[in-house]
Amino acid sequence: MSEVLSRPIWRHPEFARGARDMVGISMGIAAWGLVTGVAMAKSGLAPGLAILMSLLVFAGSAQLAALPLIVAGAPVWMVWAIALCVNLRFVIFSAQWRPYFAHFPRGVRMLLGYFTADLNYVVFMNRFPVPRPAPEQMPYFWGGVAVNWPSWQLPTLAGLLLADAIPTQWGFGFAGILALLGLMYSLLTDRASWVAAGVAAAAAVATVALPLKLNIIVAIAAAVAVGLVIDHATPAEARPLEDET
Amino acid sequence: MSTWEAVFAIIGLAAITVATRGFFLYPDQELPLPNWLKQGLRYAPLAALAAVVAPEIVVQQGHLLSTYRDARLFAALAATGYFFWRRGILGTIVTGTLVMVALRTGFGW
User: Fold this and answer.
1) Mapping DSSP to helix (H, G, I), strand (E, B) and coil, where does residue B16 land?
2) Could you please report the per-residue DSSP string of A156-200?
3) Do A179 and A199 have their domain in common?
4) Are B25 and A112 within 8 A, CB to CB?
5) Contact B21/A113, CB-based, under 8 Å?
6) Which of A91, A141, A158, B41 is deepest in the core (most CB within 10 A)?
7) In percent, how much of chain B has pLDDT > 70?
C-alpha cells in the first residue's frame, strides 16, 4: 500500500488501464449524457437548476425520473421516493463493492460510493472478479472515474446549453443503450450467465408496466435466483470463476 | 416549486445518490449477508444490464414491438453482430449507431 501511495495515483499503470477500459464505452456514455442534457433542457427546469442537478446528483436515470415531478411542482418527498426506487439497483451493487472498500475509513468509502455508477461497477467487477482488496484497485478505480465523470458531465452540459441545435430525432442517443449492450455481452462467460441474462431480459420486458422502473429490480431478483439454482445444480469442479473466499 | 425548494430537492437527490450507492458501505462492522446471497449477487451486474437494455430494444410505448420496422431492432442486431465478430465495445457502439441514424434519416423508422 505504501508503495502505491508514494507516487501520485495517476502515475500508477493501473490508473491508465482503468481509464483505457472506460474509453471504449465513453462514447456511449457521452451520447447518453447529451440526450439526458437535451431532455433536461426541454423539461422546463431553469438552466441553472438543471446544471446544479447534473453536477451534484450524477445519476442519469434518477434525474430523468425526478425532473417531470420537480417541474410539475410535486411534493419534495415524492421526488425523493421516485429517485430512491430508480436507484435501488445501486443498493444491490454496494453489497458487492463492500469487500473491496471495507478497509477504508467511512468517509473514503462514501466518497468512493458516490462515484460508483453503473459502468464503473461493471468494468471494475470485470477487472477484479475476486472480492479481495488489492493495492492496484484504487488507481484502476480512479482512472475509470477520471474518464467516466467528464464523459458524462460535459456532454450533459452541452445538451443542456445547445438543446435546440441538437437533432435528437436521429436517434444517436441509442448509443448509450448500445454501450450497455456491448458491456452485457462481455459478461457472458458461461452457460449460467447466458441463462441469467435471458431471464433478466424476459422478466424486465414482462414487468415493464411496473412503475418507477421497478421491473429492473424484479429482473435482477429473478436472474440471481435462477443463477443460484444453476450454481447448485452444477458439480463444484465444473463451476467457472467461483470465488473461494 | 420555488427555486429554493427545487435546490432543496436537488440536494436531497444528491444525498440519495450517496445513500443508495453507499448503502452497504456505510456500516463499520462486517455485514451478516448470507453466503448464498453473496454468491448469487455475481449475476446482479449482468442482470441489471440485461434488464435496462431489453425493454429499450423491444418495447414501444409500454407494449412489445408489433412491427419489424423499428430502427432500434436493426441497430441492436448490427451491434450484436459486430460484438461477436470483433469483441470490441467501441465498434459495437459505432456500428449500431450508424445503422440507427441511417434507418431514422433514410426510412423514417
Assistant:
1) helix
2) HHHHHHTGGG--GGG-TTHHHHHHHHHHHHHT--SHHHHHHHHHH
3) no
4) yes
5) yes
6) A141
7) 100
For this complex, say whether ipTM is above 0.90.
no
A window 128-167, beta carbon within 8 A of B: none
Question: Does A24 sit within 8 Å of B90, measured CB to CB?
Answer: yes
Work out how many domains chain A is built from and give that number.
Answer: 2
Residue B87 pLDDT: 83
Based on the domain organization, do A143 and A216 belong to the same domain?
no
Domain of residue A149, residue span: 2-187
Answer with the one of A168, A187, A206 that is the final residue of a domain: A187
pLDDT at A173 over 50: yes
Q: Is residue A90 domain-shared with residue A51, that is, in the same domain?
A: yes
Asked whether residue A199 falls in the same domain as residue A139, the answer is no
What are A22-78's pLDDT values in tens digits?
998 888 888 888 888 888 888 888 889 999 999 999 988 888 878 878 888 888 988
Residues A210 and A177 in one domain: no
Nearest to A204 among B50, B64, B101 (CB): B50
Q: By the CB < 8 Å criterion, does A198 face chain B?
A: yes
Q: Whole-angstrom Cα distance, residue B87 to residue A12?
A: 27
| Chain A, nearest residue to B4 by Cα | A49
pLDDT at residue A235 in the model: 64
Across the interface, of B8, B83, B93, the residue whose CB is closest to A175 is B93
* Residue of chain A nearest B106, judged by CA positions: A170
Per the structure block, which three cell numbers stand in for B70? Answer: 423499428
Q: What angle do CA A65, A217, A102 make, to 5 degrees?
A: 100
Check if A52 contacts B (Cβ < 8 Å). Answer: yes
> pTM of the prediction?
0.79
pLDDT value at A113 more than 80: yes
Confidence of residue A112 (pLDDT cuts 50, 70, 90): very high
Both A57 and A112 in one domain: the answer is yes
Among A172, A187, A202, identify where a domain stops: A187
Q: Which residues have C-beta within 8 Å of that of residue B108, sequence separation ≥ 6? A: none
| Per-residue pLDDT at A15 | 96
Q: What is the rounded distance in angstroms from the CA atom of residue A27 to the CA atom of residue A147?
A: 11
